[in-house]
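Quarterly update, task 2.4: 3-hydroxybutanoyl-coenzyme A-bound model.
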Amino acid sequence: MQSDVQYTEHETVLSYAKEMSRDTGASRIVTSDTVGPVGLICIGNPPVNAISQSVRQGLVGAIAQAEKKPRIKVLLLMSRGDMFSAGADITEFDRPQGEPSFQQVQTRIESSPLPVVAAVHGLALGGGLELAMACHYRLAHKNAKLGMPEITLGIIPGAGGTQRLPRLIGARAALDMILSGTPISGLDAKARGLVDEVVESDLRDAALSFCERLAHDGTGPRPTCNRTVIDDLDETEIAAALLPHARVLKGRTTQNLVIEAIKAASLPFSQGIAIEAALAQKSLASRESLALRHVFFAERESVKLAGSSSADARQAQPAAIRRVAIIGAGTMGSGIAMACADARLEVLVNDDDPAALTRSRETIHSTYASSVKRGRITQGIADERVQRIRSTVALADVADADLVIEAVFEDMELKKNVLSKLDSMVPPQSLIATNTSTLSVTELARATAHPERVLGLHFFVPAHASKLLEIVRTGHTSPESLSTAFRVGKLLKKIVVVAGDGFGFIGNRMMLDGYWREAEQLLLEGATPAQVDTALENFGFAMGPQRVSDLGGNDVGTKARVQLFKRESRPDPYFVIADRLTEMGRLGQKTGRGFYRYESGSREAMPDPEVISLIEKLASERGILRRDIGDQEIVERCILSLINVGAMVLEEGIAARAADVDVVWTSGYGFPRYLGGPMFYADTLGLSHVLERIRHYHETLGHYWRPAPLIERLAAAGSNFGHWDKTSASR
Ligand code: 3HC
Ligand code: NAI
C-alpha cells in the first residue's frame, strides 16, 4: 500500500518506529511531539496500526501529558506507516479487553478540554474509524478509505460506531455503510459529513495548519456524542437497506444486531452506547463470528507453510516477477493472462494455433469491455491492460519470462513436451508452472532437467475473477520456487493455499470423492436435482452441485473425471447421471439442457421430467429402490462426506492444515464463510457426533463411507481439527 503522507521532520522517529516490533510497549507504539501550539500524537503499531491494548494505553498517556503543557492548544492524532488503522486488534477478541478499554479511550478523547483532530490516511477501518469519530474534527487524505468492515467478521462495531456514525452521517447512511462493510473514499466521506476536510496535498502539513487555525480562532472541542441523529429508521427503510446485501447476508444474523444497535442511536448517547456494548458482546460470542474470524486468519495463515518446511520457505528469497508467459490461449490461458495484466505484469501469450490467439484476444477485449460497461474499470484502464498482453505463435519468444504458466490441452505427453522445451529456454531462476487440474505435477516436473523449479498453479474458472489459487508442490519443489509462487499469488490478489500433488489436489479431491459423489448417490436413491440443490443452498452454499455442473458444463466435469480417475487407475462408479447427460449432449446452460432445462437466453434452472425419468432408469438398472429423502439427510450426507474426505486429505499431507481446507472450500467452492469451512464446521458439530454419523452411513450405505482414521483418532482423544492444526508445527 502506498502512503502519501510525508514525515520529513520526523525521520528519526520514523526509523525508530520501523525497528519496533508489534506491541513492544505503549510508550514506543504511541509517540508525542509538539509543533507550535499542536500536540502531535502518532500511532505506530505495524503492520496495520491495530488499536491494541498497548496503543490504547499509549494514547491515554500521551493525551494526559499533552494536556499538561500550557503551550499545547490542540491535539492532532495521526498514524505512521501505510494506514491510519485497520481497527481493533482482532487477536485480542478471545480474551478480556484489558484497561483502558476502547470506550474509555474514546471518552477520554471526547471529554478532553482541548480540541482533538484526527488526520486519516490510507485505511481507517472499524475501530480505526471509530477512534477518528471520537475525535472532535476529522481530516482525510483524498486517497484515504474509511469503512466499517466488522460485519465481515460477524461482529457489530463495538467502539461507538453504531452510535457516532449515525450522529455524523444519519442513521440510514450509517446502516448502509455498516451493512456493506465496504469502505468509502475520503471525498465521499466529506460529502456525507463524516470528515470536515479532504486533503489533496501533504496530510501532515494540512492537518497542522487546520489545528493552528483552530488554536488561532479559539475553536473548542466538538464531541460527536453530543450530536443528535437527524433521521429515524423505519421498517421500510431497513428492508430497503438490507436488499442490496441479501445475497451476502443470506443465512447470517449479525445484521439484526446492527439494526438494533443503530436504532438505539436515537436514544441519549449513554443509553445507546450501553446497548451497543451488550449487542457487541453478543455478536463476538456468536458462532458466526467465531467462524468468520477463523476464515480471516486462515486466509492469512495459508500463505505460510506449515510444519517442518516452514523455516526453509521463510528464508527463501522469492524471484522478482515482471514478465509472464502463458502457453495455451484457451479458456484458462486467456483468463490467466487477464489476471496477470490486472496485476500490471507484462504478459506474452503463446499458442501454436494462430486462430486460438485471435479468439483469445477477442475474449480478452470483450471481457474488459464488459467490465467498462458495468462501471468496474475505466476505458483507459481497460486499454492499458489490453496493451500489456501480447501474443506469439513462436514458443522461443517466451525465453526471457520470469514466470511461465503452461495451460495447453490436458494431455500428459503434450504437457511434458512443452515443459521440457520451456526448461531449456527460460533462465535458470525462472519459475515454470502448470495449470493442470488432473495430471501428476510430479511426473510433469520430472520431464524437465530442473524439477525443483516446477510446480502447479491451479487456477479456477474464470481465472481472472476467481479468488482461489492452489499451489501444487511436489517432492522436488524448492523453497525458493514456493516462495516465488506465494509472491505470484499476492501479486494476482489471489487467496493462496499449498496442496500436495495427489488426485484432485485439495478441492477437487474432496468434491469428487465426497460432496458431489454423495449428491449423485442421493439422486439415484430418490432425491431430485432441485431438491438436492435447494437443500444445499439453504444450508448456505452459493449454488447447489447440479446447478454448478450445468453452469460449468457437464462435459467439462466428465472430461476432468476421466483424466483424474485414469491418473489413479481407479474406476469411477459414481457419476453415472452426469456422464450420461454428457453423452446425451445435455451439457448444461450452454446447450439449454443439463440437469435442468433453460429457456433460450435464461439462466433460470427449471426441473425437467426427462431427467427424473433418466435418473429413475439408471437407479433401476442398478437395483436401487428409490425412496423419499428428506433435506436433512441430503445436507448431512453431502457435508459429512466432505468432512470425511477432508480428514483423509489432511492425513495424507495433501493439505497441511485443516484451516487450509477451509480456505479452499470457502474461497473456491461456495461453502458458507459464516460456517467457517467444512473442517471448522465439523469441530462445531463435535467430532464424536461426526464420527457416529459417518459410522451410521458406513453401516447403511457401504464401504465408501469408511471413516477417516484421523477423525477416529481425534474423536477418541476428545480433540478436534483446530487443535490438530495448532500442533502442526511439530509434525
Ligand atoms: N487486528 C489484528 N491484526 C490484524 C488486523 C486487525 N484489525 N488487520 C490485519 N491484521 C494482521 C493480519 O492478520 C496480518 O498478520 P500476519 O502478517 O501475522 O499474517 C497482518 O496484519 C497484515 O494483514 P494482511 O495480510 O491482511 O495485509 P493486507 O495489506 O493484505 O491488508 C487490511 C490490510 C486491508 C487492513 C486487512 O488486513 C484487513 O482487512 N484487516 C481487517 C480489517 C477489519 O476487519 N477491521 C475491523 C476490525 S474489528 C474492529 O475494529 C472492532 C471494533 O468495532 C471494536
Ligand atoms: P482449452 O482447450 O480452452 O485451451 C488449450 C489451448 O492450448 C488451445 O488454444 C490450444 O491451441 C493450445 N495448445 C495446445 N497445444 C499447444 C502447444 N503445444 N503450444 C501452445 N499452445 C498449445 O483448454 P483450457 O480449458 O484452457 O485448459 C487448459 C489447461 O487448464 C488444462 O490443463 C486444463 O486441465 C486446465 N484447467 C482447466 C479448467 C477449466 O475448467 N477449463 C480449470 C482448471 C484448470
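Highlight for this quarter: The first strand starts at residue 30 and ends at 35.
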